[in-house]
Design brief:
Helices cover about 50% and strands about 15% of the residues. The chain has about 500 residues and is α/β, with parallel strands linked by helices. It has three domains: about 280 residues, HUPs (Rossmann fold), CATH 3.40.50; about 120 residues, Four Helix Bundle (Hemerythrin (Met), subunit A) (Up-down Bundle); about 50 residues. The longest helix is centred in the middle third of the chain and has 28 residues. The structure holds one RNA strand of 76 nucleotides.
RNA sequence: GGCGGCAUAGCCAAGUGGCUAAGGCAGCGGUCUGCAAAACCGUUAUUCAUGAGUUCGAAUCUCAUUGCCGCCUCCA
């Protein structure tokens, strides 16, 4: 099945036809390094991480470029407030970003360029635009003249005359037209600057992406992505700059992820409802956040709330419970010669193979992770059925099915970036986080469980039940199985 | 004002012209269990905001109505 992508430019799903057969060039707008990453950044990162992973799994040679904006007014402000250089601010928040991404199991893109490392490319691009008469310099600033680029507005579906009518009064009287945007900004006294043909200054916001995507992916590449808020003006302006300079559209497919809302409200600084990735992963395992994102289609808005994360946690526990059962059952069944034998055909084997195909097909269809997860949970049910319910099934058949299921879950994990941990490690982390939230001492709980284990061996059920009730009052749920007791909070 | 999006069970959420409307959470009945928990089996929307239309056939297409939301200024 061919890969389909919803293209913002045409507002339709289209079949991916890469510029170069078998390869995909993808550019995604990254962060401006002036603050810690919030869950909106997490969503964009996770969405395009899955795009990257799935295309790779489908055999494409993917070059994924995600930039860091390390020169910007907000960075300068912060540096001034703290009395440090902009490079220190950028370095700090890029480092924290990398930590957050690693926690979320987001793969590092192929190339992660920084704006300040590409000044010459930007200056050259602006010069080209100036030479072509599309950009004009005024007293150290350089502007892009939107009227000289006839298809301006093509991505966002806006028309120049309509925008003119609604344009807000611009205080910058250097511009010939209020919609013209800055390519190069003259630096004020004390601000960081780079030398240029127009004097000391710094690049405008949009030009870095035009310069860096072209440097690493060429004049026209395949996929350009980012949050939906970037459609206008950022991506519109990027297209204008690139296409005016090279004569070719920079990207063939434009992908935009939807917003994260907080309790049905827009996340914004003024509402004070911004959640950082690092504060959330102190509350929940990072995979909870990841699963939460993937349960909705990437273009729909998602509504973040504690209740929705709790639900995602419960779903994640369901998956890991199946994986843990699978692991334990396989350990018990272990017989190397059996593993080597070709698996006998069975309904379950057939079902697993179908689930893999359906899973992959869901992602082929515009990266429908929500639908794909449905098949993951179908697979979990099948695993649970084999490990705990199918008492009459011969061990050899179970072994073959579980080996195939383990391979399938490895594939799911590779593509979605969840369910890749050892279940025991996942549950350990989950328990620690939940215990910390409630101020519970895990060592004390473990000790009480050990005491209870003795009473169980003595078949003193009433004392065993007393301890269970005592722990249950704190939210600790015990699961007795042959030989050992595991536990979970909530 | 301009542009765009969304409305599917108690909740979250796929499905966008034709098999029984995925999956998760919650609920109910049963199996398993010393009892539980988990798991499994079964069950929970004759129906997809409302009204009209197109079609042999629509949750899916068209029009209208209602409600919610985003962008148009920095923003993932």
């Amino acid at each position: 099945m061919p890969q389909k992508i919803f293209n913002t430019k045409t507002r339709k799903k289209e079949i991916l036809q890469p510029v170069r057969e078998g390869a995909v060039g993808m550019y995604v707008c990254g962060i401006t390094a002036y603050d810690v990453c919030h869950i909106g950044h997490a969503r964009a990162a996770v969405v395009f991480d899955v795009v990257f992973r799935h295309l790779k799994a489908r055999g494409y040679n993917v070059t994924y470029v995600k930039n860091f904006t390390d020169i910007d007014d907000k960075i300068i402000d912060r540096a001034n407030r703290e009395g440090v250089g902009i490079d220190q601010i950028a370095e700090r928040y890029i480092h924290l970003h990398d930590e957050d991404m690693a926690a979320l199991n987001v793969l590092t893109p192929t190339i992660t360029p920084r704006a300040t490392g590409h000044m010459e490319d930007m200056v050259a691009l602006i010069k080209t635009l100036e030479e072509k008469g599309i950009a004009y310099a005024v007293d150290g600033d350089v502007f892009f003249a939107v009227h000289n680029f006839p298809v301006y507005g093509g991505l966002s579906g806006r028309h120049l005359d309509e925008m003119m009518a609604g344009a807000r009064v611009d205080v910058n009287d250097k511009k010939r037209n209020p919609l013209d945007f800055v390519l190069w900004k003259k630096s004020k006294e004390g601000e960081p600057f780079w030398e240029s043909p127009w004097g000391k200054g710094r690049p405008g916001w949009h030009i870095e992406c035009s310069a860096m995507s072209r440097r690493y992916l060429g004049d026209t590449f395949d996929i350009h992505g980012g949050g939906e808020d970037l459609i206008f003006p950022h991506h519109e302006n990027e297209i204008a700059q690139s296409q005016a300079a090279t004569g070719r559209p920079p990207a063939n497919y434009w992908m935009h992820n939807g917003f994260v809302k907080i309790n049905a409200e827009k996340m914004s600084k003024s509402l004070g409802n911004i959640f950082s990735i690092r504060e959330i992963i102190q509350q929940y395992h990072p995979e909870v956040l990841r699963l939460f994102m993937l349960q909705s289609h990437y273009r729909s808005p998602v509504d973040y709330s504690d209740a929705s994360l709790k639900e995602a946690r419960t779903a994640l526990i369901r998956g890991y419970t199946a994986l843990q059962q699978m692991k334990e059952t396989r350990e018990k069944l272990v017989s190397p010669d059996q593993e080597k034998r070709p698996p006998e055909p069975s309904d379950e084997m057939k079902k697993l193979s179908e689930l893999k195909d359906k899973f992959d097909a869901s992602l082929d269809d515009d990266f429908n992770t929500a639908q794909a997860l449905g098949y993951v949970f179908d697979a979990a049910r099948l695993v649970n059925h084999v490990t705990t319910a199918a008492k009459k099934m011969p061990a050899s058949a179970k072994q073959a099915i579980l080996a195939a299921a383990a391979d399938l879950f490895a594939h799911f994990g590779d593509v979605l970036g969840v369910f890749q941990l050892d279940p025991d490690i996942f549950f350990h982390t989950d328990r620690s986080l939940e215990a910390a939230k409630r101020g519970l001492d895990t060592a004390r709980i473990e000790a009480r469980i050990a005491e209870r284990q003795k009473t169980r061996e003595e078949k003193d059920w009433s004392r065993a039940d007393d301890i269970r009730r005592e722990l249950a009052a704190e939210g600790v749920i015990l699961k007795d199985s042959a030989g050992r007791t595991t536990w979970l909070i909530d």
